[in-house]
Design goal:
The complex is a heterodimer of chains A (about 450) and B (about 250). With about 450 residues, chain A is α/β, with parallel strands linked by helices. Chain A folds into 2 domains: about 10-285, no CATH class; about 390-445, no CATH class. Chain A is built from 10 helices and 21 strands. In chain A, strands 1, 4, 5, 7, 8, 10, 12, 14, 16, 18 and 20 form an 11-stranded mixed beta sheet that branches. A 10-stranded mixed beta sheet of chain A has the order 3-2-6-9-11-13-15-17-19-21, with helices on one face. In chain A, helix 2 runs antiparallel to helix 7, helix 8 (about 390-400) crosses helix 9 and helix 9 packs antiparallel against helix 10. The longest helix of chain A has 26 residues, at about 1-25. Chain B is built from 8 helices and 10 strands. The radius of gyration of chain B is 18 Å and the shape is globular. Chain B has a 6-stranded mixed beta sheet with strand order 6-7-8-3-9-10, sandwiched between helices. Chain B is α/β, with parallel strands linked by helices and about 250 residues long. In chain B, helix 5 (about 150-160) packs parallel to helix 6. In chain B, a hairpin with a 2-residue loop joins strand 9 and strand 10. The chains are: A alpha/beta (about 450), B alpha/beta (about 250). Chains A and B meet through helix 8 and helix 9 of A and helix 2 and helix 3 of B.
């Protein structure tokens, strides 16, 4: 009994700590409807508690490193950062509408949103909730509120602000919208829980680049939740680049709802953070929708990277492609869980999942688990996972051409990653990511 | 140029080369012929430094310098080039990127500066033309989706670009149709010069119709049993390898 009490106690700290100002925020009412959502999320958090590795969804990713830390929300204070500080962080040559969040809060004077075309909005979610709650209540927390992911519930319970991105029906926003999450060090470990809602109206199109990065190597936690709503025929290109501090913890819950004929292309790059977990949840509400989820992750010493995909084909005639690759080195660990569920009646579903991993050291590890659950007839579904090493014959071929072993290994890793990176557009983004991956691989191949 | 003395090498404890001697002068083309399993490819791989081959005796010198100790990439930088019998595919590795890295590594070792983008492109175009290879090859991943003939021509193309002192062609003729064979031969002949030597490892005499060798050696059971001029190749074509083996046994008896 006493053992249970002593292990359970520090775990509960996490909930209390994170919600400390969350409950304070609950006192600061947003709207009655939102306040209720937060209250019920809080109850859910208390009911669920912190998951243990006995639960399937957390079996390979122990939360111990996270629960050993005490995080508290960032105090509300103005950032002293200037535009000059951002220069080194923006992607060279990348022309974008930019929303900059520092420690989870939108900072208007660092953002560039004045050139958005009429009909496109990138603004504070809280402001929208206060001004026109009806415009978002139909979507906010609809999909994310359904599941039992405790960190998503924590995000909702502590919801203070984030972004609303919306594009009116028929409008194509040509320049990408970049959402830059910047974390700067604080006196004590802090947690930010940004909450974003993105709604693309019927036939609307947009490209969103979502980045997570930090100044220096602070210890902090990001727990972000995104809800993406694609109305009929809408199209979204979504590039997610996580290069957080090597001491950071990163959690993302992404909830995507796709209506008839909509198209989503998401590319996830997990390069940073000491410990990261990303849940990608996809639901189709109409036929002929198409979803592509791709990803590349790198994990080295003491790093853990975890991707959980949950794609549910609940309606017929939809396609989904899940393509993830990982490079593990040193004592890096990765977890990949790809679930595709094809419900009864979802005929003509076309779903394929692949996960390929390259292990560069003996102590690197990956747990990969594809799950295809098919309850419909007349579907095309497949999955494949591989875990391999660098082929010595291939290495010899490169070396026989005068290329050093180190350079050869790097070249092969980049080649392996290239299949994912090459899909990145626009070009400055692709170059930036290739450079990021390349510099990470410098360390990777130094063993 | 190349001096091999008493070379012995084993694979997984099985002795393949049993005291091989070979002297190749500067500017010369030598053909190594022999039946299957005689050790031809082993010789090529030992020269290039492939792992899995244990050298148990003898020495190899390239221009008087030891070639056995250096790593494969060091050998390449000293001027050795191996054209693979089975070129490997490098998915995701762009040909231009790969070739530039290889050329710059070799140039650096020769004390030359890195090549600039414009000169590099010009050089590649020029060499591609010799081998009748399409420009589009440069944008593709190395050897991925190449036909057998394209892979072999790509090997010779790489050789032309790297300008080695000693080129070892490991059964480059195998699996080539007559047109591809001619192109490969043109590529090799274009590279012949007084300060460059070539070792052709081949099973058939056919290649030697297009690349005329200075010397022909017959490798049997890990040793060179007979050497001669190009007419030896014709004799082999006519009589087969059994003749030399029988001859050898006769001499031994």
């Amino acid at each position: 009994m006493s053992t249970i009490a002593s292990t359970a106690e520090p775990r509960q700290h996490l909930l209390e700590d994170w919600l400390d100002s969350g409950s304070a925020a609950a006192d600061r009412s947003i709207t009655p409807w939102m306040d209720e959502e937060r209250q019920s999320a809080l109850e859910k958090v208390r009911r669920l508690g912190i998951p243990s590795t006995k639960q399937e969804a957390w079996r390979y990713s122990s939360l111990k490193p996270l629960t050993e830390q005490r995080f508290s929300p960032y105090p509300a204070e103005e950032t002293s950062l200037t535009r000059g500080d951002l220069d080194a962080l923006v992607i060279p040559g990348m022309d974008a509408h930019r929303a900059v969040l520092v420690n989870g809060r939108l900072v208007p004077h660092l953002s560039d949103l004045q050139d958005l075309p009429p009909g496109a909005r990138v603004m504070s979610l809280r402001a929208m909730l206060e001004q026109e709650p009806d415009a978002v209540s139909g979507h906010l927390n609809k999909l994310a509120g359904r599941g039992d992911q405790v960190f998503t519930a924590l995000n909702t319970a502590g919801l203070e602000d984030g972004l609303l991105v919306s594009v009116d029906p028929g409008l194509a926003v040509e320049r990408p919208v970049e959402i830059l999450h910047l974390s700067v060090g604080a006196d004590v470990p802090r947690v930010a829980q940004p909450r974003h809602l993105l709604v693309l109206g019927e036939g609307a199109r947009a490209t969103v680049i979502e980045r997570y990065l930090s100044l220096g190597e602070p210890l902090y936690c990001t727990n972000s939740v995104l809800e993406l709503i694609l109305e009929p025929g809408a199209g979204l290109d979504h590039h997610r680049i996580q290069t957080e501090s090597p001491n950071a913890f990163h959690l993302t819950g992404l909830y995507l709802s796709q209506a008839r004929g909509s198209r989503y292309r998401g590319l996830n790059l997990g390069l940073g953070a000491a410990w990261s977990r990303t849940d990608l949840v996809v639901r189709f509400s109409g036929p002929e929708a198409d979803c592509e989820l791709a990803g590349l992750y790198l994990a080295g010493d003491r790093q853990l990277v975890d991707y959980h995909l949950d794609v549910e084909h609940g309606v017929p005639h939809c396609t989904s492609r899940e393509r993830f690759k990982g490079i593990l080195y040193g004592r890096g660990r990765a977890v990949f869980d790809g679930r595709i569920h094809v419900a009864r009646g979802a005929h003509k579903t076309d779903a394929h999942l692949s996960n390929k991993n390259l292990l560069l050291s003996r102590s690197a590890e990956v747990d990969t688990k594809p799950q295809l659950e098919i309850f419909a007839d007349d579907v095309k579904c497949s999955h494949g996972t591989t875990v391999g090493q660098i082929d010595p014959d291939v290495l010899f071929y490169l070396r026989s051409r005068g290329i050093s072993e180190l350079a050869a290994r790097r070249m092969l890793c980049l080649g392996f990653a290239g299949e994912i990176i090459d899909d990145l557009a626009p070009e400055p983004l692709r170059d930036y990511v290739a450079t990021q991956v390349g510099s990470r691989l410098e360390k990777t191949t130094q063993e | 140029m190349l001096s091999v003395k008493g070379l012995k090498a084993s694979v997984e404890g099985r002795e393949i080369l049993r005291g091989l001697d070979l002297e190749v002068g500067a500017g010369e083309v030598h053909a190594i012929m022999g039946p299957n399993g005689s050790g031809k490819s082993t010789l090529a791989h030992v020269l290039a430094g492939r792992e899995g081959y244990e050298v148990t005796g003898g020495r190899i010198l390239l221009e008087g310098e030891d070639l056995l100790d250096p790593a494969p990439e060091e050998r390449a930088r000293k001027g050795l080039f191996l054209a693979f019998q089975y070129p490997v595919e490098l998915p995701g590795v762009n040909n231009t990127y790969f070739l530039k890295a290889a050329l710059n590594a070799v140039r650096k070792a020769r004390g030359e500066p890195e090549i600039d983008a414009v000169s590099f492109l010009r050089l590649m175009r020029e060499k591609l033309k010799v081998l009748h290879l399409d420009d589009s090859l440069l944008k593709r991943a190395v050897n991925v989706g190449f036909s057998g003939g394209e892979k072999k021509r790509n090997e010779i193309f790489q050789m032309a670009l790297l300008e080695p002192k000693l080129a070892v062609l490991d059964e480059t003729d195998s699996g080539l149709d007559i047109d591809a064979l001619r192109l490969v031969a043109d590529g090799v002949n274009a590279l012949r010069s007084p300060d460059r030597s070539v070792v052709l490892v081949t099973h058939y005499q056919r290649l030697l119709d297009y690349i005329e060798p200075d010397r022909v050696h017959v490798l049997v059971h890990g040793r060179i049993l007979r050497s001669g001029g190009k007419e030896l190749a014709l004799e082999l074509e006519e009589k087969g390898y059994g003749w030399i083996e029988a001859d050898q046994e006769g001499e031994a008896a």
